[in-house]
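Blinded run. Sample ID left blank on purpose so nobody reads anything into the name before looking at the predicted structure. Input follows.
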Amino acid sequence: MAQRNIDRLLEIMARLRDPAGGCPWDVEQSFATIAPYTIEEAYEVADAIARQDLEGLRDELGDLLLQVVFHARMAEEAKAFDFEAVAGGIADKMIRRHPHVFGADSLADSASQRIAWEAHKAAERAAAAAARGQGPESALQGVALAFPALTRALKLQRRAARVGFDWGETAPILDKVEEEIRELRSELDGASPPERVEDELGDLLFSLVNLARQLALDPEAALRRSNAKFERRFRRVEALLADQGKTPGEATLAEMDALWQRAKLEERQNNPS
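Blinded prediction complete.
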C-alpha cells in the first residue's frame, strides 16, 4: 500500500533534523527561531485566500502544515509531545466543543454556536486553572501577545465585553474617539516627548478598534481594504506620471495629489455602487 503523504512528510522532517546527516540549517533551529516563519506562512495563506488563488492556497497550506510538523518534531525530540498528540488533541477538542454535532445538544444557528463555543473555551480554561491549583483566571487570560496589535485589541475588548465592561452602543465610543483625537492634538501642540505622543496615538487606535467592534466590523479587514485601496490608487498615480515621462520622485506633491484625486474619480466612475 502506498505511503500516506503525511507519513512521508513526518519522515522527511525527521531526516532533516537528524544531527548525523540532516540539514545543518534545520538541525540548528528552535521553537523561537521557527515561530516567525509560522506567522509568515499563516499570513501567506490569508493572502492566497484574499486573491482567490486556490492553486496558491494549496501550496501555502502545505507550507503552513510544514511549520506544524517542524514544531511537533522538535517537541518530540524534547520528549514533550509528537505530531500524533497534536492531531489527537485538536480532534478531541473539536468533538468536545461541538456537542450539537457529536452529542445530544442542539443549536438554532451559527450565532448560538459562537456563544456556545466561547462558553466551552471559558470552561476549559477554568478547569485548566483549577487543575494547576490556581484561582479564577482573568477574563483576558489566553489572548496571545503575538497577535497583530489590532487583532489583539479586538480580542481583549470582546473578552471584557463578555463580563459587562462595554458601552454597548456606538455614540459614546464616537465621543471617546473624538476625546482621544483632542488629547493627541494637545500632546502634539505641546511638543510632548515621543512616548507621550505614542501613548495617545495608541489610545486613539484602541478606541477605533472598539468602534469597529461595536459596528460588527473586523478592524484588520477594514485596514487591509484601505491598504489595498491605497496601493491601487498609488500605482495608478505612478502610471499616470509615467505617461508624462516622470517618476514620483520627480513630481511635486501638488502634481501627485491632483493625480490621486483623478484616480479616486476614475474608481467611482467605474464602480458607481
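Unblinding after everyone has recorded impressions. The radius of gyration is 25 Å.
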